[in-house]
Design brief:
Elements: E1 3-13, E2 17-29, E3 39-49, E4 53-54, E5 57-59, E6 62-63, H1 65-79, E7 88-93, H2 103-114, E8 119-122, H3 124-135, H4 137-143, E9 147-153, E10 158-164, E11 167-174, E12 181-184, E13 187-191, H5 193-201, H6 214-231, E14 260-264, H7 268-272, H8 286-295, E15 303-304, H9 313-320, E16 323-327, E17 339-346, H10 349-352, H11 355-366, E18 379-382, H12 390-403, H13 405-408, E19 414-418, H14 423-433, E20 440-444, E21 453-456, E22 465-471
Parallel strand pairs: 1-7, 7-8, 9-14, 14-15, 17-18, 18-19, 19-20
Antiparallel strand pairs: 1-2, 2-3, 2-4, 5-6, 9-10, 10-11, 12-13, 16-22, 17-21, 21-22
Length: 477
């Protein structure tokens, strides 16, 4: 059986902490000698974990780019890894840090220095999934045949991902975290506005400069814990709850009901293990928040599972779970790969039912990918379901070329992403129809949504597959 090693990096710049992991992914052909290759990632292993650093800030609204670069450079050297040794990975700015003024520039700087095919991405949806997979909530839900929600509680936000028997059912994110109130020398030095308003509504007098009183802050943490329980459907939602979702986001679905939970993020260790000592030792309310969650009656009604990773869950998820492979039946132009940050133009399944509405959907959406009147590189995505006969694939190729005429006439390659296993035959059909005058990349086995971005890596495993990273909500504005 043919095996290939792919090296990956995860870099997570969070509200409180910054860390890296390097991982080893093993790609293997699982098909027999005479069968069509069926190549999968069969093993994932973290080979190096960095120290955990406090995220360097130049001011409350700005990340210190140079210091972050110093951390990354130092950890690459400590791990004995050069950027050119890596084939895939993710740089993610998470939680409250994603709202800093210069977050975008930091991502660009790191993406350039961390390796040619490292993706720069952030956003609460993706963070929820990565932390849950790093924590092992997906595997726990599958093994126990139940519904498990992971709550990743960081400094600025709590990311929730709901899994039912291994399948993702929903994600959400709330502005609840351990560093939303900071404490210096026994006094409150900063309060996040939403949390200040929540405290006032509950008659808790908290102002910057006040002495940090453990009992009052524990009461507030109990209210915050109650909102996390509301977000999981363990308590009825009150009038304040909707305002706590990050970027006015949505809650997870009410069905299936949550039966078990895992916790990850910096606060998770304070949930699992009630440590004695100074509750303000980290300069925030993280210890009290963890304690309040652990003691809250609502959380006693579901099974508590121990996460595989806690504070490192997101960065482990970024290093090992961002990459998928598309292969064996794909069409690509070798000298066009790798390509990064391609926006997805997704055709809705209703529009895909008829070829004329499919073409019209692509044409109409193209207007969104024309900044300053110039067509940009875009990936047309669809399911391709039910179109497997030779004639059906030919008709599908015609419909895509008709709708995507703008891309065909541009200097960009035509990129098509299909879920169904028809990438090679569809790609070849489009190339023939274009008389081989246009570069065509057609990959399959990949599910996407509108608003996603895609990175397609250089071919591996003897050219049979390409590594693919789907990025949901590339930037959390």
């Amino acid at each position: 059986m043919m095996q290939e090693i792919v090296r990956s990096v995860g870099i997570d710049i969070g509200t409180s902490t910054t860390q890296l992991v390097f991982s080893r992914l093993v790609v293997e052909n699982l098909a027999g000698s005479y069968a069509v290759p069926r190549i999968s990632i069969v093993e994932k292993e973290v080979i190096y974990r960095s120290k955990i650093y406090f995220t360097p800030l130049r001011s409350p609204t700005e990340i210190d780019t140079e210091k972050v670069k110093e951390i990354v450079r130092g950890e690459y050297a400590a791990a004995g890894i050069r950027p050119e040794d890596l084939q895939t990975g993710a740089v993610i700015i998470t939680g409250d840090t994603a709202r800093k003024q210069n977050a975008n520039q930091v991502l660009e700087a790191l993406s350039d220095m961390a390796g040619d095919f490292v993706v720069a991405t952030a956003g609460p949806d993706l963070e929820s999934v990565l932390s849950a997979r790093g924590a092992g909530a997906d595997v726990i839900s599958e093994e126990h045949r139940t519904t498990v929600a992971n709550i990743d509680i960081g400094g600025g936000t709590s990311n929730i991902a709901l899994y039912e028997k291994g399948t993702l059912r929903g994600v959400s994110c709330l502005d609840i975290g351990g560093r939303l109130i900071k404490v210096e020398q026994g006094r409150i030095s900063w309060i996040f506005p939403k949390i200040h308003a929540l405290a006032q509504k509950h008659g808790l007098a908290l102002e910057v400069g006040d002495p940090a009183q453990e009992q009052t802050l524990y009461e507030l943490c109990t209210i915050m814990a109650g909102h996390l329980a509301q977000a999981l459907g363990l308590l009825p939602k009150d009038g304040d709850h909707a305002g706590l979702y990050t970027n006015d986001g949505s809650p997870i679905p009410t069905e299936p009901a949550v039966r078990g939970i895992t916790f990850s993020g910096g606060v998770a260790d304070c949930v699992y293990d009630l440590e004695p000592g100074d509750v303000f030792r980290y300069g925030d309310i993280g210890v009290l928040l963890g304690r309040a969650i652990r003691n809250h009656a609502a959380f006693q009604t579901v099974e508590l599972y121990r996460a595989v990773e806690t504070i490192r869950a997101t960065v482990v998820g970024a290093g090992t779970h961002t990459t998928e492979v598309s292969g064996s039946t794909i069409t690509y132009e070798k000298d066009r790969l790798p390509i990064k940050n391609i926006p997805i133009l997704r055709v809705a399944e209703d529009d895909e039912a008829h070829l004329d509405t499919l073409s019209a959907s692509i044409r109409t959406q193209m207007a969104m990918y024309r900044p300053e009147g110039v067509t940009e590189l875009v990936a047309i995505a669809l399911s391709g379901a039910g179109r497997t006969s030779f004639q059906a694939v030919q008709q599908l190729a015609d419909a895509i070329l008709d709708g995507g005429r703008e891309v065909v006439e541009s200097s960009h390659p035509l990129i098509v992403v299909v879920e169904n296993d028809i990438g090679k035959v569809l790609g070849n059909a489009m190339k023939v129809k274009l008389e081989h005058k246009k570069d065509v990349i057609c990959i399959d086995g990949i599910r996407t949504r509108s608003g996603d971005y895609i990175d397609i890596g250089a071919p591996i495993a003897g050219g049979h597959v390409v590594p693919v990273v789907i990025k949901t909500l590339i930037f959390n504005s």
